[in-house]
Automatic annotation (TrEMBL):
The keyword Membrane applies. It comes from the Bacteria. This is DUF983 domain-containing protein. The keyword Membrane applies. Pfam families: DUF983 (PF06170). Keywords: Membrane, Transmembrane, Transmembrane helix. InterPro entries: DUF983. It comes from Hymenobacter lutimineralis.
Length: 94
């Protein structure tokens, strides 16, 4: 991952250890994905065997891992890093 945004120059890590909080946000995303998939399997397949739950939750977790990582870091930057999107600045750089 580059240190700065190539378009606006925003530092992706404002301070050392900044993304420790993103780890917790990612945990919430992963927990939500696992709960949704678990309930979907339960209701759609009428309470299947345990291995079906484990396999479906594991596959869903692996598939959504890039989403979880990327959006947890993005939320951390927007909520606690003071980052705001500036459309005018993005247009002038491109």
């Amino acid at each position: 991952m580059p240190e700065h945004c190539p378009v606006c120059g925003q530092a992706y890590e404002p301070e050392p250890g900044f993304y420790w909080g993103a780890m917790y946000i990612s945990f919430v995303f992963s927990t939500g994905i696992m709960l949704v998939i678990g309930f979907a399997v339960y209701f759609l397949l009428n309470d299947p065997d345990t291995w079906v739950y484990i396999l479906s939750v594991a596959v869903a977790s692996l598939l959504f891992m890039p989403f979880s990582l990327r959006y947890s870091r993005t939320l951390m930057l927007y909520l606690f890093g003071g980052v705001r999107y500036d459309a005018a600045r993005a247009r002038t750089k491109s």
